Every structure is written in C-alpha cells, then in structure tokens.
Amino acid sequence: MKILIATDTYPRQLNGVSRVLEKTIKELSVRGHEVKLLSVDDFRYFPWPGYHEIRIAVFPGSRLARIVDDFSPDTIHIMTEGPIGISMRRYCKKRGLRYTTSWLSRLSEYVSLRYKIPVSWLHRLLVDFHQSAAQTMVTTTSMEAEARDLGISRIVRWRRGVELDKFHPVETEIFSGLPRPIMLNVGRIAVEKSLDRFLSINIPGTKVVVGDGPQLNALKKEFPEVIYLGVKEGEALTECYAGADVFVFPSLTDTFGLVNLEALACGLPIAAYPVTGPRDIIGDAPVGAMDEDLGVAIKKALTFKSEDCIARARTFCWDLATEDFLENLVPVNVEHPVLAEY
C-alpha cells in the first residue's frame, strides 16, 4: 500500500524520531510498501534561533497539498506536532480524511523549559492536535497512561527495536589508559537532556559525552574535565558503547531513549532517574539502576552483567515494531479497501 508519513524532523537530523523514521521506512519498503516521507526537506525552511540543528518549514500548506494529492496515499501518519504536522492535519480535516498520529516527544515540556510558556497551555494544544486522529501511537505503557491522563483518547502502542547487527559487543581500546569506570552519555546536547545533572556528580572515573547540540560549548566551559567526542556513528559509536562501563541517561523528559537500547545491545548497563523511558526499557531486568540520586544509580549499575544487558536488548525487535505500526494505520476513508486487504 501507499503510506504517507509527515514529519517536522528531517531525515538527517540526529535524534530518536529521525532514527525511528529511517528504520521504519526501511522495514516497510522491505515488505513491499511504497512510502512517501513528507519532511522539512520538501519546503522552504529557517533554522530555529539558538538551535540551528532544528529546521522549521515555512508555510508548507499549499505545497504540502500538491504533494499529497500527487501521491494519493492509502493511509496517512503524522509523526510530529510542528508546522508540517499541523498543515497535514488541516489538509486531512478539510478533506474528511482519516489519519493517525504519534506522540513521541515531550515537545510541550521542551518549549516550556526554553521559553517559559506555561506547560498547561501547551498540553491543551497537544491534546487538541491528537484528539481528531483515528488513533495516536505511543511507545510505552507509561506514555499510554500519561496520554490518557492528559485527555488523549484512542491510544495504541508502537514499540521500538534495536539494530543488533550494528550494536553488539566489540573488542576496543578506545578508552584505554583513562581512569575507570568510563561513564558514557550519547545523544543531543541540549538543556532538556539534563546533562549537567550527570556531569556535576562527584564520582571517581571518567565521564564521556558523545554528541552535539546547542549546550555543548556551555558544558565544555563548565565541565572541562569531561571528554567530549562529538558525533559518532557506525562502528565508531559501537566502540564507544562497548568500551564504556556504564551508560548514564540523566534526561527527565525523554519518552523512550533509543540510545538506552543501543547501550544494552553492546553489553552496557544503564544508570538513570526513575522516569518514563528508562523505567519501561529496564523493567524488572537486572540491566540497569534507577534512583533519584544519579550517583547511587551509577554505582549500582556497575554491578550488572553484560550478558544480561544483551539478552534484554534482544527482546526489542524492529520486526515487531514495524508490525505494530502497520496494524495501527487506518485507511484515509472508511470505504478504502487497501488496509482491510492487507
């Protein structure tokens, strides 16, 4: 079938949503589906002030309509709540088309944190955005509960996976000679990731940060003893995971955190706060520690075994995640036969 996915996160952006998109589109294509990704690359855009990694589409409405009309999709999914997502939602409502959405990030909290807008106002906009969807996909049981508490109905699950062919234990000397334990964080370096909570902990060993973002220079000045490796991909990233002793995930706002699965797949235990994301990934398995005191969580996580971490990662499968996505989709109109045939 012809699947249209609308997103404000462009494909080359280094974040969880773009990585989910990349893997999902690949899996859908293998199954024979034709996928059209409608992203900021299709429109004029400007970089968000103070956060140039984020691009904002400028008045995408008219061009968006032409692209969708030309593609004539069997089903439409809206990934994000930005200008493209809003325009796609408006297009569907104007034409009486059914569609699904995803709630994959705490955009309300991010905007509130940066611009001091009351989060309750932003939550009302969030609920309004998703309420008209036939179904809204969330990643975990925790996010499902939060969505229902906010007032979003018609919630379905869209699980996550990890690429075990890319992320697995390897022999590496990447951190040879550095004081142990090696405490690693991988991801976007931005204020909402709460990296200062991790980097300010007084604990023996070496802290390593992999990634880039608007807070990088400020953290380098405040915590010059930390090793900053920049963006790493492919084998270089796998070596970082495999060469470390514990993965530290200090974010309080992430809805999942794919980097946690990548770390586990490389045999690396997780230390985190007891929040959505780590709580769902770790569960009751002896693969990570969660505590309001992140230093306590780090020390406890160091006691877990690599083989248990790898076993836990293998329970997260992209094949099942893709089946979730396909089952959650709806035909653009009630009479449309394609999804029923699928």
UniProtKB/TrEMBL annotation:
Q: Which Pfam families match?
A: Glyco_trans_1_4, Glyco_transf_4
PANTHER family hit by this protein: SULFOQUINOVOSYL TRANSFERASE SQD2 (PTHR45947:SF3)
UniProt protein name: Glycosyltransferase family 1 protein
The top of its lineage is: Bacteria, Pseudomonadati, Pseudomonadota, Gammaproteobacteria, Cellvibrionales
- What organism does the record attribute this protein to? Microbulbifer variabilis
Q: Where does the Glycosyltransferase subfamily 4-like N-terminal domain start and stop, copy by copy? A: 15-165
